[in-house]
């Protein structure tokens, strides 16, 4: 019986029923938001926040499982959006097939690239992902014949998609539900992966790669697979973005978008799969409130990031888990 198999069983035996119940309640509550919020502007901002939360969740999953910080996830986000846009321009595939390709191709690229770059030290990995993302940004910025350069592209979409009217994906009330469902499914899927034997193996590699290799486990492929899963999640966010906005610009590939995702993951806490999504909510609330006060709102976000990093290293989700643990101990 391997230690990893034993650890997997132990994790399943200790599945937090209360946390699962809270997850179900939050999931259902999110579905009801369009019934409560009537403002189209508010729903638009919330939809964009959920899309960015999906991106942050992908970035946070890579940090959680591999201890690697990617400044290049905007590349997967933007590539997915451009694949859908270019398919509409050149009419290469049915849009449904193009969407699947838009999620799979960045994941395959990440896996192949990951076989080489996940071996690098964490800082070198971060800088290399930043360089690759900026290379894609420059390509789409300067290649006007292909993607209309800095002006961006209007995306041609069919009248119906996956059996639904295209308006479902472009009206804030219905698109919020679509994006919320996608976020819930992704968080649940990543949570299951994290608690699986594979998830425990990647954590073991993160903690001590040499020892994991010494006891007989392959260490590069699992990390490359994790990088690919993380990229696929970012690509899903890019697809949601382009379906909602029907427009894409090179800004979707810029490193600053990855930076925002990292800030959300740090504030929310990457130790919990759902932490980056929580960080996204906090980020947008702070941005909205601080933006009303001053144009220098990024400074307030920066101060918040410093405070969280110093005072709550495991992020807001870690603080919540700690408080819940203490409350549980107090009741015993």
Give a brief rundown of this model.
With 332 residues, the chain is mainly α.
Any overview of this molecule?
There is one protein chain. The protein has 332 residues and is an all-alpha fold. The chain is 77% helix and 2% strand. The chain is built from 16 helices and 4 strands. The strands form 2 sheets. A two-stranded antiparallel ribbon has the order 1-4. It has a two-stranded antiparallel sheet with strand order 2-3. A hairpin with a 2-residue loop joins strand 2 (160-161) and strand 3. Helix 4 (40-66) runs antiparallel to helix 12 (220-245). It is globular and about 60 Å long. The two termini are 33 Å apart.
Mind sketching the topology for me?
Layout: H1 3-13, H2 17-31, H3 33-36, H4 40-66, H5 73-90, H6 95-117, H7 122-142, H8 144-147, E1 153-154, E2 160-161, E3 164-165, H9 172-195, H10 197-207, H11 209-214, H12 220-245, E4 247-248, H13 255-268, H14 275-293, H15 297-311, H16 315-331
Antiparallel strand pairs: 1-4, 2-3
Q: What is the CA-based Rg, rounded?
A: 20 Å
How many helix segments? 16
Intertermini distance: 33 Å
Helical percentage: over 70%
Structural class of the helix and strand makeup?
mainly alpha
What integer is the average pLDDT? 87
Low-confidence stretches: none
The largest pleated sheet is described as: 2 strands, antiparallel
**E-strand count:** 4
Order of helices and strands: HHHHHHHHEEEHHHHEHHHH
Query: DSSP strand (E) fraction?
Result: under 5%
Strand order of the biggest β-sheet: 1-4
Shape: globular
């Amino acid at each position: 019986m391997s230690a990893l198999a034993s650890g997997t069983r132990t994790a399943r035996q200790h599945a937090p029923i209360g946390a699962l119940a809270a997850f179900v309640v939050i999931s259902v509550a999110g579905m009801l938001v369009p019934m409560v919020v009537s403002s189209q502007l508010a729903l638009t901002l919330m939809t964009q926040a959920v899309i960015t939360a999906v991106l942050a969740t992908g970035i946070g999953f890579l940090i959680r499982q591999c201890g690697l910080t990617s400044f290049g996830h905007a590349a997967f986000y933007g590539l997915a959006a451009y694949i859908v846009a270019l398919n509409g321009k050149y009419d290469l595939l049915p849009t449904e097939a193009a969407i699947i390709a838009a999620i799979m191709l960045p994941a395959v690229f990440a896996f192949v690239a990951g076989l080489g770059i996940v071996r690098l030290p964490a800082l070198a990995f971060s800088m290399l992902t930043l360089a690759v993302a900026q290379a894609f940004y420059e390509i789409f910025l300067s290649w006007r014949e292909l993607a209309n350069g800095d002006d961006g592209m209007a995306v041609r979409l069919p009248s119906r998609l996956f059996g639904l009217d295209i308006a479902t994906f472009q009206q804030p009330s219905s698109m919020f539900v679509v994006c919320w469902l996608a976020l819930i499914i992704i968080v649940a899927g990543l949570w299951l992966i994290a608690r699986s034997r594979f998830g425990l193996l990647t954590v073991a590699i993160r903690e001590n790669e040499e020892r994991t290799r010494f006891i007989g486990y392959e260490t590069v492929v699992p990390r490359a697979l994790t990088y690919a899963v993380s990229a696929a999640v970012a690509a899903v966010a890019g697809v949601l973005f382009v379906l909602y906005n029907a427009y894409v610009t090179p800004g979707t590939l810029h490193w600053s978008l990855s930076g925002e995702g990292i800030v959300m993951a740090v504030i929310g806490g990457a130790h919990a799969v759902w932490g980056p999504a929580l960080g996204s909510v906090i980020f947008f609330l702070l941005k909205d409130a601080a933006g009303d006060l001053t144009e220098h709102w990024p400074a307030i976000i920066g101060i918040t990031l410093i405070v969280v990093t110093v005072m709550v290293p495991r992020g807001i989700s870690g603080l919540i888990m700690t408080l819940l643990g203490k409350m549980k101990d107090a009741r015993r």
